[in-house]
């Protein structure tokens, strides 16, 4: 790849990481505001609470995806040639989407939550005017289109290089007995995300269009149950895919730091194939309380939810332990973050598995147990991988050097994030419902503990972010061969 093309890719990655980390800190502040309100420390109106909740949910999922895409794009461009313009198109459409969403929420009082469940947006269009609802729905639609453009482009590139998405998922090795190792882990993971997320986004776009049409002309109505299927297929898959993009950093960074290649052996390939399939199948675990859904769908949702992330999680955790075992791995910010993030991911899956059990779900699903689960795997998994990658990227392409301050920030981040999710899970246990602006007195204690933890998390995130931005000076100046010659260059 030409030097200029690589430079542009690096600049794009650097820019999206800056956006990701700054927005992340802002969204965390909104998170603490919600907890302070639920804990009766600061009072905001319920209407304001739901606006804040909507922007927190949308913003967090959005930036987890943006950060994940930066990771995917950066490493994938080591193996295949990529046109940086496509990355910028996605970035630009994402930013336009974000501006529309922010205007909808803070300019026009849209507050239906990031899941925009039909016909909620139509109701709020009647209450508060069409503009807010339409801006929000179009904002999400534009964001989705940006991702589709990127995924379709990547699909075309992978098909050209590997001869088909089946091949880049390793089918030659699984079904046709081809010997040796499959495509690089980054390629396998990208293929999975292309398949799953394109389906998810198309489902989401359909649901968005239904809402938009219904708002513009209420004579057109749609089946709310079908819309719920489409919406949760989208929400589940899109949120899940953030980790399948971010995990590429685990493979790449650990192989570089240990000087051992991360090989796509048969178990690894099979695991990624299973997770591709399961991720598409199991969104019905969000519908376990809907008695109108056919029983067999719920059973599929339940059974395969247990198995969903498991294959990839197991091969990743096992692979990481094996690659590190008796290696001379250098423990610095990036490698420790990757390692801790893997535990965050695994730990976050446990409460989900419990919640995906139908009997438990009827009791737990609308409690804070659920935010407890996804804050674990998002905050301590995906976001930790993104922070770790930010450091790695900066060290490789910019000028950041590790200090004792960083170590302090890492431990602060993980200790207090454990406290935050602990407070959510505990609140779930004592039956505090999720998404309630006002809490009963017996629940406020857990909210206050959560808010305190949140403040420390923000302090750590601020340190990561400012140090990252300060270290970015050299990006694009270093020569490519000094940075990306071989994935296995030694770091010592
Ligand atoms: C300082 C860190 C954070 C704090 C204090 C925080 C706080 C909160 C609170 C209080 C809620 C509402 C809970 C309820 O239903 O009552 C919430 C919801 C949510 N948070 Fe966070 N959060 C943090 C970090 C994150 C991160 C890192 C992510 C993902 C990358 C995230 C994603 C979400 C999502 C998707 C929702 C659901 C919104 C909804 O129910 O519509 N949060 N958070
Ligand atoms: Cu789900």
TrEMBL record:
Xref: PROSITE patterns: COX1 (PS50855)
Transmembrane segments: 12-35, 55-76, 88-110, 130-154, 185-209, 229-254, 266-283, 303-325, 337-354, 374-393, 405-428, 448-470
UniProt entry keywords in alphabetical sequence: Electron transport, Membrane, Respiratory chain, Transmembrane, Transmembrane helix, Transport
Gene Ontology terms, MF aspect: cytochrome-c oxidase activity; heme binding
GO cellular component: membrane
Listed GO biological process terms: aerobic respiration
SUPFAM superfamilies found in the cross-reference section: Cytochrome c oxidase subunit I-like
Keyword Ubl conjugation annotated: no
UniProt entry tagged with the keyword Oxidoreductase: no
Domain Cytochrome oxidase subunit I profile as annotated: residue spans: 17-492
Entry superkingdom: Bacteria
PANTHER family in alphabetical order: CYTOCHROME C OXIDASE SUBUNIT 1 (PTHR10422)
Protein name from the UniProt record: Cbb3-type cytochrome c oxidase subunit I
């Amino acid at each position: 790849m030409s030097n200029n093309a690589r430079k542009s890719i690096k600049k794009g990655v650097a820019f999206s990481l800056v956006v990701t980390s700054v927005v992340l800190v802002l969204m965390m502040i909104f998170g603490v505001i919600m907890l302070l309100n639920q804990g009766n420390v600061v009072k905001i109106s319920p209407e304001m609470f739901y606006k804040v909740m909507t922007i927190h949910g949308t913003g967090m999922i959005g930036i987890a995806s943006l950060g994940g895409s930066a990771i995917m794009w950066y490493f994938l461009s080591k193996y295949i040639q990529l046109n940086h313009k496509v990355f910028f198109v996605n970035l630009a459409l994402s930013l336009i989407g974000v501006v529309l969403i922010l205007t909808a929420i803070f300019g026009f009082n849209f507050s239906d939550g990031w899941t925009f469940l039909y016909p909620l947006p139509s109701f709020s269009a009647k209450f508060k005017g069409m503009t807010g609802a339409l801006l929000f729905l179009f904002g999400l639609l534009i964001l989705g289109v940006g991702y589709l453009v990127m995924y379709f482009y990547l699909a075309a590139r992978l098909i050209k290089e590997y001869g088909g998405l089946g091949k880049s998922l390793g089918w030659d090795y699984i079904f046709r007995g081809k010997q040796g190792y499959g495509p690089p882990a980054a390629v396998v993971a990208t293929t999975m995300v292309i398949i799953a997320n394109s389906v998810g986004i198309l489902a989401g776009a359909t649901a968005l269009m239904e809402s938009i049409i219904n708002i513009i002309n209420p004579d057109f109505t749609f089946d709310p149950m079908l819309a719920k299927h489409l919406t949760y297929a989208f929400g589940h898959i899109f949120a899940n895919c953030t980790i399948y993009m971010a995990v590429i950093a685990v493979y790449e960074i650990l192989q570089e730091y240990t000087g051992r290649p991360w090989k796509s052996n048969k178990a690894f390939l099979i695991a990624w194939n299973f997770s591709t399939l399961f991720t598409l199948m199991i969104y019905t675990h969000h519908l376990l309380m809907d008695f109108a859904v056919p029983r067999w769908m719920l059973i599929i949702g339940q059974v395969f939810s247990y198995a969903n992330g498991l294959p990839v999680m197991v091969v990743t955790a096992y692979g990481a332990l094996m690659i590190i075992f008796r290696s001379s791995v250098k423990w610095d910010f990036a490698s420790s973050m990757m390692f801790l993030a893997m535990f965050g991911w695994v730990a976050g899956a446990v409460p989900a598995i419990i919640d995906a059990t139908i009997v438990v779900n009827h009791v737990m699903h609308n409690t804070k147990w659920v935010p407890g689960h996804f804050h674990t795997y998002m905050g301590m998994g995906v976001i930790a991988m993104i922070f770790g990658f930010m450091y790695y990227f900066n060290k490789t392409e910019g000028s950041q050097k590790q200090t004792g301050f960083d170590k302090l920030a890492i431990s602060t981040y993980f200790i207090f994030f454990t406290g935050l999710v602990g407070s959510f899970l505990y609140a779930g246990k004592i039956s505090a419902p999720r998404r309630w602006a006002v809490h009963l007195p017996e629940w406020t204690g857990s909210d206050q503990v959560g808010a305190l933890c949140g403040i420390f998390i923000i302090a750590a995130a601020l340190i990561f972010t400012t140090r990252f931005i300060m270290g970015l000076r050299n990006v694009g100046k270093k020569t490519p061969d000094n940075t990306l010659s071989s994935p296995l260059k030694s770091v010592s």
